[in-house]
Give the backbone structure.
Amino acid sequence: MDITHALQSLRPGASWRIHNEDYSKLEWLEKPVWEGGQKKPTQEEVEAEVVRLQQEWENTEYQRLRAKEYPDFKEYLDGIVKGDAGQAQAYIDACLAVKAKYPKPEGVE
């Protein structure tokens, strides 16, 4: 995660420019707050948001990995429609194997 992502997260829709991901070179183009604009976030706010977004990304990596390996749900539906309990169970077993391969991190809800 970087400053750009943090700014987009903290102030959605705000206008700004930044050079080389350097907060000291952040040019806030948003109208002043008293004219309906958004307040420029402090460097501390931006740094904290970078850390938060990075942690969120790391905490959800298992979901991205699982999504790549889950079997096609059509196999399950096909088994249900045909009344083939073995095919449906094979799908469930394959999903459980992927979940076991990429477990949810401790403390993540």
The radius of gyration is 22 Å. The helical segments are 3-10, 43-59, 61-69, 73-82, 85-101. The mean pLDDT is 94. The longest strand covers residues 16-17.
